[in-house]
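Minutes, structural biology subgroup

Action item carried over from last meeting: produce the C-alpha cell record for Serine-enriched protein (Rhizophagus irregularis). EB confirmed the sequence was re-checked against the source entry. Recorded below for completeness.
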Amino acid sequence: MTTIFHSGLSKDLSLILNDADDFNVIIQVGENQNTKEFYAHSVILRARSPYFKCAFSSNWISKKNNMIIFNKPNVTPTVFDIILKYIYTGELDLTKQSCEDILGLLVSSDELLIDELFNHVQDYLIEKQTSWVQKNFVLVLHTVFQLPSCKKLQDYCLESICEDPEPFISSKMFPSLDKNILFGLLKRDDLQVEEEIVAWDCLIKWGIEQTPGLGNKNSDRTKWNNENFEALKKTLNQFIPLIRFVGISSGSFFDKVQPYKAIIPHYIYEELEEFYCKKALSRTTILLPRRRQSRSLMSAIIKFRLANAISKWTDKNDLVTHSNDNKCKFNLIYSMSRDGSNGRTFYNKCNGQGPFVVLIRVQSNKIYGGYNPIGCTGGNKWLSSTESFIFSFENNQNIYNMKFGRVINSAYSVYDSSNYFFSFGDILYINGRNLNIGYNNGHYENIFGEKKILNIEEIEVFSVVKE
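Output recorded by EB:
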C-alpha cells in the first residue's frame, strides 16, 4: 500500500518558490508600467509545463551568467503569480481574483499548455461566474474564439445568447462584435429572437457601425448616397442570406427591409417579392424559419437547456447533447412559493396529473430533482418503476456538471402518499422544510455522495407530456 504525503510536498515546494536562493530562471512578465520579475527553477517549470519544456530546449531563451532570462510581456504579473503558485504547489484560489484576471489566466494556461489548469478555469467561469460572463459576452467571446481548445466555453456563450438574445443584441458592445462570431450566431437555427425582424434590425445596426463612412455620424439612411449603400452592401454581403425573411411579417418587411433594398442581392429580393405576393417560395435561396423553443416552461428554478436535459432522460437517453429538440411539454402544477409548503397541498396539486418532475432549489442555488413516471396514486406505498431517475444541477443553466442517476431497485422507485411530499428511494426526500440527500444508496445510483440535510428555497413540480 502506497502512502501519499502531498500536503507536505506542496508546503515544501511553496517554500522553494518563495525563499529559494538557487533559482536559475528569471521570468519578466507584463509590459509598460505593469511589469514584474519572477524567480523560478527550470527543472520544475519543465516538469509542469510542456511549453516551458520546449522553450528551455530551444532558441527562445537567452542566458546571462548561466541564468535563463525569459520574457512574457503578454502575461500580467497577477496572472503569472497565480500560475507559478499552481505550478509549484498544485494550489489554486480564484475566489479573490477579478474575472478579468481569471479570463487572462484561461488564455495563459492555454498558451503554457497546462491542461489541468485550463480546464478548471474554463469550468470555473461557467459554473461560478455565470453572471459576469453573461454581462461581458463580447469580451469573453472575442477571447475564447481565439482559443480552439476552449470549445466548452464557446458553446456555453453561444447557447446562452441563443436562448435569450435580446440583452446581448441590445448591449452597447454588440456593434463591435467580431464578424465571424456574428456569422456563427445568425446561421444557428436555435437563435430565439421573438421575430426575425429583430435579427434583421441587429444586423443593420452592426453593419452601419462596421462600415467606413457610416456609424454614429452617418446613421440616417435617408441622407445616404449610392456609395454609402454600396459600402453597407459590401459589409453585409455574407450575412444577408442568413436572415430568415420568411419569418418577417409583410408589414415589417415593407417598413424595415424594403428601405434597404439596395444592399440585398437581386436574386434574393426577387424571391422575397414573390413570397410576399404569393405567400409561397418557388425557389430555395431563402432559409426556412428558425426552430422555436416551446415557452411553456414557466420555471423560477431552471432554464430551457436544463429542461432539454430532463426531456432526454425521460426518453431514456442518457447522453445529453447541446441540441434544443425538447420532446416534452412541462406544465407547472405546484410551486412552494405560490401554493405553500404542505404535503397535502402538494398531493392535491399533483394528483391526477400523470408523470411529473420535481425540482428543488436549495440555499446554495444548487438544484436537485427527480422524475416520477407514474404520478400520484394516494396509496401510501412504494411505487414500482424502471423509468424513474434523480439528478442535480450546479445552477439554473449549467449542463456541464450535472449528475444523473437511474433507479436500480425498481420496487422502491417513488414513495407515494396523500400526506407526504415525496421520496425517491429514500436517497432524495423532504423532511419538514429540509431536503435530505444520500441517506439510502441501495435504490438509486449514488450521485450525491455523502449524506446531507439542506435548506430548501423553492420547490416546483411539472407534469410531463410527451409531444
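Discussion: The two ends are 55 Å apart (CA to CA).
Next step: EB to file the record with the rest of the batch.
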